[in-house]
Amino acid sequence: MSARPIIIDTDPGIDDAMAIFYALASPELDVIGLTTVFGNAHVDVCTTNAQRILDIAGGPEIPVAQGAARPLAMNYRGPSHFVHGVNGLADVALAAPSRAPHALDAAHFIIQQATARPGEVTLVPIGPLTNVALAMLLCPELPSLLAGMVLMGGNAFVGGNASPAAEANILNDPEAADIVFGADCPIVMCGLDVTEATIMSSEQIAGIASFDNPRALLATQILPYYRDFHLSHGGPDGIHVHDSTCISYLLAPHHYSSVQHPIRVDCGDGVGRGKTWPATRHALSAALWADRTPVTILTEVNSAAVVALELDRLARA
Ligand code: RIB
Ligand code: CA
Question: Which domains does the chain show, CATH number per domain?
Answer without folding.
Answer: 4-315 (3.90.245.10)
